[in-house]
Specification:
The protein folds into 2 domains: 168 residues, no CATH class; 104 residues, Rossmann fold, CATH 3.40.50. By secondary structure, the chain is α/β, with parallel strands linked by helices. The strands form 2 sheets. A 5-stranded mixed β-sheet has the order 2-1-3-5-4, sandwiched between helices. The longest helix has 24 residues. Keywords: Plasmid. InterPro entries: Asp/Glu_race (IPR001920).
Length: 292
């Protein structure tokens, strides 16, 4: 056994994907690459996937999560637009994901328990869905073990089921802030994310010595446009949006905080304007199993 495997607890991750699809696949790749790198850091033995300690189900079920919302939008206007996105569209889209997502979590926790995994982590690799996902996981746990267990997960972020199996909710922003506070303490951070995401990061940096650079209504409108462009992947649109982000937001931040970290805090962002929070999250999730 490699030294990195010693003490690394076998872990089963339930990943609620499709926010968006390509970013979810990228996250699974980052997680797998980081784990392999950790396992092969010492020694010259050949690597085999059978050495891994992190198993996962990547649940890309966007049609199921939003079946009614999709049908209603198509019936109303004949096409899908940005109002189908959780965090940008109306509350009923998020409500449907809350209900359908909790069913998916319940099914996958049962799957993990049936395979005798003792540590289960549940999360969405998306900065903006952390609060919603916590509630989804809590409801999934409650349906299996009772409301008191769901309440414990809501308040503590984890709970031990009656059979001793540990279920954890993982929060992207919490892991990212943990990394940034280690590397860049007492800095101001630019969070390239929606208003809701910026609010989440403000809560997370409280007490860390970090602060979040303030953005205005026009900044958030541009970031919403950048999210839509990033999902569509049109090269011309992406280049135009990247230029706008640099000129209207990043340059303003750099004028007063030349060394401050810039976080691309949308799952689909890969503009190269700052650190990729999806990759940071993957690395920190590996650290939580193998040690930092």
């Amino acid at each position: 056994m490699r030294s990195a495997q010693q003490g690394a607890e076998l872990t089963f991750d339930i990943v609620l994907g499709d926010f968006g699809r390509l970013a979810s696949v990228d996250y699974a790749r980052y997680l797998s690459e980081e784990e392999q790198s950790r396992l092969t850091a010492q020694g010259n033995l050949d690597f085999f996937d059978e050495e891994r300690r992190i198993m996962f189900n990547l649940c890309c079920q966007i049609e199921w999560y939003k079946r009614d919302s999709i049908a209603n939008q198509l019936k109303r206007q004949g096409h899908i637009d940005r109002d189908i996105l959780v965090g940008i569209g109306p509350d009923n889209v998020a409500d449907e994901f809350l209900n359908k997502g909790s069913e998916t979590v319940t099914e996958n926790i049962k799957c993990a328990i049936g395979k005798n995994y003792r540590r289960i982590r549940v999360y969405t690799p998306c900065n903006g869905l952390s609060d919603l996902t916590r509630e989804i996981v809590a409801r999934g746990v409650a349906s299996l073990a009772g409301e008191s267990y769901g309440d414990q997960l809501r308040s503590e972020g984890e709970c031990s089921l009656p059979n001793g199996i540990l279920v954890e909710f993982s929060n992207v922003a919490q892991k990212v802030v943990r990394r940034i506070s280690r590397k860049s303490p007492s800095q101001t951070v630019l969070v390239l994310g929606t208003k809701g995401v910026n609010d989440i990061y403000r809560k997370q940096v409280n007490g860390t010595g970090l602060s979040v650079f303030p953005l205005n209504k026009n900044d958030f409108k541009l970031i919403d446009d950048a999210i839509v462009a990033s999902i569509g992947k049109s090269a011309d649109h992406l280049n135009s949006i990247k230029s706008d982000l640099m000129e209207r937001i990043v340059s303003r931040f750099r004028a007063t905080h030349p060394l401050g970290p810039v976080l691309e805090a949308c799952t689909d962002f890969s503009f190269g304007l700052g650190e990729n929070t999806l990759r940071i999250f993957a690395e920190e999730m590996v650290n939580d199993v193998y040690g930092s």
